[in-house]
Design brief:
Blueprint lengths: L2 H15 L13 H11 L4 H9 L5 H19 L23
Helix pairs in contact: 3-4
Length: 101
């Protein structure tokens, strides 16, 4: 492996260390309905996003809330002893792809 390739691989690994993700598969909700809610919470602080999803009347909000809680659990598994309220967690990116056809 060349030096340039090794350096870019190391930079990519460092960038991934700070990202925590969760994936929701086989969800029977239309992508359009999910995208309406993802537009609301993208860029928000995590606790505020959870509140928005909890009090939203749409059915897709329950699934997104569960997904966000799963991503928070992935973060907590790496950062034990750190409280969510004290950390600076926010929703960086959230994507919805097309469903089954």
């Amino acid at each position: 492996m060349g030096a340039r390739k090794r350096n870019t691989a190391e930079k990519r690994k460092e960038a991934v260390k700070n990202n925590y993700q969760a994936i929701l598969r086989n969800c029977p909700t239309s992508p359009r309905k999910m995208r309406l809610l993802t537009g609301l919470i993208s860029g928000m602080e995590v606790n505020k996003a959870l509140d928005v999803l909890k009090f939203s009347p749409q059915e897709a909000s329950r699934r997104l809330e569960k997904l966000l809680l799963s991503a928070i659990a992935n973060w907590q598994s790496k950062n034990e002893g750190v409280r969510i309220e004290e950390s600076n967690l926010f929703v960086k990116e959230i994507m919805v792809d097309s469903g089954r056809s």
